[in-house]
Design goal:
The structure is a single chain. By secondary structure, this protein is of the alpha+beta class. About 20% of the residues lie in helices and about 35% in strands. It has three helices and eleven strands; from the N terminus they run ααβββββββββαββ. The strands form three sheets. A five-stranded antiparallel beta sheet has the order 1-2-9-4-7. A hairpin with a 6-residue loop joins β5 and β6. α1 runs antiparallel to α2. It comes from Actinomadura napierensis. Pfam families: CDO_I (PF05995). Keywords: Dioxygenase, Iron, Metal-binding, Oxidoreductase. This is Cysteine dioxygenase family protein.
Length: about 180
């Protein structure tokens, strides 16, 4: 496991405590994502909290670092560094997710599934800037993430599940034609 550097552990501890409180409200997924988003906005850490080796990598790649898994499995926190040109596959998630951009710009392309399930329909694109927080909950969370800028983008993602147990937050990948 990598050691967190540059910032006191209390910064992450404060965020974990705030997210724990948001999750403990036992609301539905969309409401929980909203509460967790509020917690992240209030306790957004700086990139200095993250291990330096997270920022390395080849153009077009991304690296993740698990920061916290709640002991009861109710949420996990992951930092992701997006190199210029990085791109995920189009996917959806097993649970709610909230993310905040610590540095750079993380682009999100949104999609809906066609009525007959044979293609995807472009539903929009969001440039998420440094300091911005966003979130979603299934269903209706089909998207991909990319970095189209020239600088590394770093984001902190909070998922409503135990990632150490299930391995990935992605529920399904979509290899379907995309309609504009």
């Amino acid at each position: 496991m990598n050691t967190l550097t540059a910032r006191p552990a209390a910064d992450l501890d404060e965020l974990v405590t705030a997210v724990r409180g948001a999750v403990a409200r036992n609301a539905g997924w969309r409401e929980t994502a909203s509460y967790v988003g509020d917690a992240l906005r209030e306790h957004m850490p700086s990139p200095g909290l993250l291990p330096a080796d997270l920022f390395g990598g080849e153009r077009g790649t991304y690296r993740s670092h698990r920061l916290h898994v709640e002991p009861d499995g109710s949420f996990s926190m992951v930092a992701i560094a997006w190199q210029p040109g990085a791109l995920t596959r189009i996917h959806d998630h097993v649970t709610w997710c909230v993310f905040g951009v610590l540095t750079g710009v993380e682009y999100e392309d949104l999609y809906t599934l066609s009525d007959d399930g044979t293609s995807l329909i472009e539903a929009g694109s969001n440039p998420n800037l440094t300091g911005e927080v966003s979130g979603f909950a299934p269903p209706g969370d089909i998207h991909r993430v990319r970095n189209i800028g020239d600088e590394i983008a770093v984001s902190l993602h909070i998922y409503g599940t135990d990632l150490s147990r299930i391995g990935s937050s992605a529920r399904r990948f979509y290899d379907l034609p995309v309609q504009s």
